[in-house]
Amino acid sequence: MADNRADTRVSMRTPLARVKGLGASGHGVEHWWIHRMTAVSNIPLIISFVIIIAALAGSSYEEAIAIISHPLIAIILILAVLSVTNHMRLGMQIVIEDYVHDKGPKIAAVIANNFYAVIVGVACLYAILKVSLGRILV
């Protein structure tokens, strides 16, 4: 026999929230999706990076500066740095969240991971911009 009474349980969630079912964190698969997207974007960016570095192998300093100063090359290098550092940050965050069980060290490790990724990214971006804009600004 079916129970046709109305559901009388009190819930703070809206009907939309109940339907979406984003889980305990409230973020759903956003973290997973961004990590996969950066992985996919890293493929052509790293291939381009390797080709650029291979092209610089036998060149003089002036030729290397001229190659890196080209706007398309600088943009590819900047995109590679942004994608790789973000992918690195997300990957390490997954490892930290899975294997560090105490709340205090976990929070400290995630914060340190974020700072490390930002420092590495900013240092790389500074180097690329300094080399690529060096001829213009001097």
Automatic annotation (TrEMBL):
**GO aspect biological process, one term:** tricarboxylic acid cycle
Cofactor names:
heme
Task: Give the subcellular location.
Answer: Membrane
Q: Which GO terms describe its molecular function?
A: heme binding; metal ion binding
The question of whether Membrane is a record keyword is answered with: yes
Looking at the keywords, is Nucleotide-binding present? no
Domain of life the protein comes from: Bacteria
Q: Which UniProt keywords apply?
A: Electron transport, Heme, Iron, Membrane, Metal-binding, Transmembrane, Transmembrane helix, Transport, Tricarboxylic acid cycle
Please identify the protein, giving its name as recorded.
Succinate dehydrogenase hydrophobic membrane anchor subunit
Record organism: Microvirga tunisiensis
Name of the encoding gene: sdhD
